[in-house]
Every structure is written in structure tokens, then in C-alpha cells.
């Protein structure tokens, strides 16, 4: 009985998972299609990214280094 109470306290004291930072990209990082604020999003490395489809979202989650700079900026939006 005591262990159940301690477990309940541990669950209550555990920090809530961090919410991903909202998407700001205007182009799909995978296919480069222009996105608007209503586009679906996927979370990668604690940030959300707008994508045009489930397929692009899956590709981004599978290989984020291919589409994102180290700072999280989509490679298609990185200014030189």
C-alpha cells in the first residue's frame, strides 16, 4: 500500500514532457513546397515543422540531418 502511494507521488512530481517549439517554416523541408499556417506539422528534436504530407513528415523524422541544419533551420530556408 505504501509503495503505491510513493509511486503516485513520483508520477505527480515527474516533470511534464517539454512541448515542441511551434513551427515557423514556410517551406516543407523535404519537398520544398510552400506551406501556410494550416499545414500539418511533425515534431523533430523538440521543434515542429510544417510539412505537406505524411510522407514528407516521415522522411523528415527518419533522417532530419538530411533536411535540417544543426541549429534546426530547414536547409531550404537557410540564408547564405
Characterise the protein shown here.
This protein is of the alpha+beta class. It has one domain (19-75). The protein is 31% helix and 12% strand. It has helices at residues 2-13, 54-62, 64-67, and strands spanning 40-44, 47-51. It has a two-stranded antiparallel ribbon. The radius of gyration is 18 Å and the shape is globular. The N and C termini lie far apart (62 Å). The model has no long low-confidence stretch (mean pLDDT 83).
Structural class assignment: alpha+beta
- Strands of the biggest beta sheet: in what spatial order? 1-2
Number of strands: 2
Q: SSE string, helix = H, strand = E?
A: HEEHH
Uncertain ranges: none
What number of domains?
1
What is the overall silhouette? globular
Q: Can you count the helices?
A: 3
The N- to C-terminal Cα distance equals 62 Å
How are the SSEs placed, and which strands pair?
Layout lengths: L1 H12 L26 E5 L2 E5 L2 H9 L1 H4 L13
Antiparallel strand pairs: 1-2
Keywords: Signal
Protein name: TRASH domain-containing protein
Quick recap:
The protein is α+β, with helices and mostly antiparallel strands and 80 residues long. It contains three helices and two strands; from the N terminus they run H-E-E-H-H.
Keywords:
single chain, alpha+beta, two-stranded antiparallel ribbon, 2 strands, 3 helices, 80 residues, globular, RNR-like
